[in-house]
Design goal:
Elements (H helix, E strand, L loop, with lengths): L18 E4 H7 L4 H8 L3 E4 L6 H16 L8 E5 L10 H9 L5 E5 L5 H12 L32
Parallel strand pairs: 3-4
Antiparallel strand pairs: 1-2
Length: 161
Amino acid sequence: MTALREVGILGTGSYAPERVLSNRDLEKLVDTNDEWIVTRTGMRERRLVSEGQATSDLACEAAKRAMEDAGVGAGDIDLVILATVTPDHLVPSTACILQARLGLVNASAFDINVACSAFVTGMNVEVVDRGGRLPPRARDRRGNDEFDPQLQGSRFVHPLR
């Protein structure tokens, strides 16, 4: 019988872009109102990336905060799993860009293409594949580049560009 290794979250970090799009702002763009959006989504605002800001920029800030919270340095991290539906590029992976920017010389890195279930999927990949200590990781919440703002069902969940 194989002994299970202890797994836990050592630290967390997050980052949200500065630009805000509120429900009141959306009222000026489309036929809707704050109450309609909040009732159906619970959302009052969404954050928008700035021109030229990429998923790796958001992930880098979040990862720095997670590493600080966990009290670990770049040499302590051995795996980066970046869950996103909006990678910087198809190749190289956004995780590899993050790995380089953070100086994670001991880490392997890869992306997984996951949206809403990103955190749970990333945890499962880590636990199932490695069974080891969870490194800090980051995921993006930018929305999809192929988002259609005219679709009533999704335009309030995903950011407009």
